[in-house]
Design a protein that fits this description.
CATH superfamily of the largest domain: Zn peptidases
Strand content: 15-25%
CATH architecture of the largest domain: 3-Layer(aba) Sandwich
Largest sheet: 8 strands, mixed
Distance between the termini: 49 Å
Number of strands: 14
Radius of gyration: 23 Å
Number of helices: 13
CATH topology of the largest domain: Aminopeptidase
Number of domains: 2
Helix content: 25-40%
Order of helices and strands: HHHEEEHEHEEEEHEEHEHHEEHEHHH
Length: about 475
Amino acid sequence: MSKQNILQLMNRYQSEFTDMAKKIWEHPQLAYEEEYASNLQISKLEEEGFNIQSHIGGIDTAFVAEYGTGKPVIGILGEYDALPGLSQQVSAIQEEIVSGGPGHGCGHNLLGTAGVEAVIALKKVMKEEEISGTIRYYGCPAEEVLSGKTFMAREGVFNDLDCALTWHPGDSNMVMNMSMQAMVSVKFHFKGITAHAAAAPHAGRSALDGVELMNVGTNYLREHVPDGTRIHYVITNGGLAPNVVPDEASVWYYLRGASKDQVDQLLTRVEKIANGAAMMTETNIESEILAYAYETLPNEQLNELMFENMHQSTALLFNEDEQSFATQLVNSIDQKVGNETSLFGSTVDELLPINFQYKRELSGRSIGGSTDVGDVSWITPIGMISTTCAPVGVPLHSWQATASFGSSIGYKGMHLAAQIMSLTAYDLLVNKGKVLEKAKEEFKRSTKEKQYVAGIPKETGPPKGAVKIK
């Protein structure tokens, strides 16, 4: 009966959280600048009787909201940062709200709001039924630059969790039992000697030459890396004018791999190439790590429980208008690119799936993309799902995704995710020791009891202000 109480509560107050997600969608802010979303969520959680700790890990927009006492301690992870250049109306044609402005093309307006919705409903039932235990909502900034949770983890804020639950807006209702890639974000800065490029080129030492030779060497490295490895870069500073030998130049790399150990090895090799390029050009080289996320470590015990609670949640249904909007969004995508593959590599018949999936064949596989949820998954067992918030074929980080995540399609998927997380956390609180102990045993086997160490160096603090994404 208590689970039914949770669902009734959530259905009763659904409009409040639709409004919260809509407001965050209408006020998109980039990584480390998410004051609007952070303050809005804190205000609501304080009103509901949660204790708030703010400025976590030295980040102005990071916070933890807690209710209850004792064990188990269950965390629900939320995010709320937007992406640059994805401002968009809820429309099937590209219409910016603010020219060049940010937008929620990854659905973080939904992601964090579902967590708030889940813990508030759970708290009401815990209080009514006098259930012991502690629930926490983690307001996590800067996931899009893959560092917010790393800075928080470095401060130990996840260390006493018994487990954590999270989700991500997607194009299907499924358990995330595959692993996302580890990734390091690193900039290389070359310093040389400026000179007149025509009158005295011999007097110069080109920092840009260093960058370009490094990129050539790295491109040759692509032949000798494990399958699935990804190397991306952009030149962020190539000099000021063609007739001046550049004395400063920089290049920004993302290196991805199936595991952090794999990325560690790849970074070592790329650093050797950078040092070689500096030696060839007689320039100096410095590097700075901006983010260093672990691969995600799925927990089958928690995922199984979340899958069970998918079937106990309110059925997800989409009306004719939503089906029509979904069709228009998919038809707006360049057909040469193709739009038949879902966000997670599967194909389905309908554009807005309502069925629940647990693709066991994906267990142990690494898929493209990365998230700083990976760091938390190496500290405590994590259960993770996806729900239908956009039609199949609409890619994340697109204007079509922004439009869908600001529509009723996105809000319906968000409420489903909130229900699944709340019901799952309730099971973990009431059935203490059963699933949790098995989840912890699995976690120990998966990690081989390897201690988590944050990849971002201790001397590197969180940035102040927005971080642009390339």
